[in-house]
Amino acid sequence: MNDKGINNLSIQTRVDELNDFTLLHKNFGNVAFRAIQKNNFYSGFSVGMERITRLLKEDKFDIESFRQNPIDGVREFIHGYFADRGGNMPDIFIEGNTVFLETKFCKNCLTIEAEKLAEQCHEDVCAIYCRTFAKGIVSVLEELFPEIVINFYNVSSRRDGKDSDCREAFQILSPKRVENPS
Question: What CA–CA distances, in Å, run from 167 to 29, 57, 67, 107?
Fold first, then answer.
């Protein structure tokens, strides 16, 4: 598994990455944040590819079951990622056609701790870092199952310096009509 973004549980690695973001911002201005966001998305996408490949090799991913219930499939896929990674485990649950990732009163968010040690950070570092990485992981499923569309959005965030809450949503729209998926 690659060691970028939220995949790495080392505080020093996160501080280094945030300092790299600052360096890019100092040299390129706000346009750097688009590049940083893309990089984090692709790092997450790479992790998603590694995950699905490993699950297929281990015969632990049922393509037909996913097609029958992509909402539960997305929940299982992202839950499995966090379980394998270790560290903080968000609550992952389904409401209607939406999979939610939610942390409540998280006292040990590595990104927030890294922000305190880093030179300077984007005002919403989670938007360009953590959220984008998670979106990349799940986007693999959207590419491999073109009959679904996944809308990703942040529902709420609280970062008051004491505890942190966040709620991210993956809304699964299915089925998108595909004439010839092969």
Answer: 29, 32, 26, 15
Residue 61 CB contacts under 8 Å (≥ 6 apart), including other chains: 52, 55
The amino acid present at 135, given as its one-letter code, is K
> Listing from the earlier edge strand, what are the strands of the sheet with 149-159?
91-95, 98-106, 164-173, 149-159
Q: Of 9-23, 43-57, 144-158, which gets the smallest average pLDDT?
A: 9-23
Strands 149-159 and 164-173: antiparallel
Inter-residue contact 140 to 49 (CB < 8 Å): yes
Alpha carbon 147 to chain centroid, angstroms: 21
User: What beta strand segments (E) does 32-134 contain?
Assistant: 91-95, 98-106
Half-sphere exposure for 30 (CA within 13 Å, toward CB): 2
Ordered by start, the domain boundaries in the chain are 5-173
Fold classification of 5-173 (topology level): Muramoyl-pentapeptide Carboxypeptidase; domain 2 (3.30.1380)
Question: SS3 breakdown of the chain: % helix, strand, coil, rounded to 5?
Answer: 55, 20, 25
Q: Look-up: residue for tokens 């097609």?
A: 67
Q: What is the pTM of this model?
A: 0.80
* φ, ψ (nearest 5 deg) of residue 148: -115, 155
- Give 115-129 pLDDT, tens digit per residue: 666 676 655 566 666
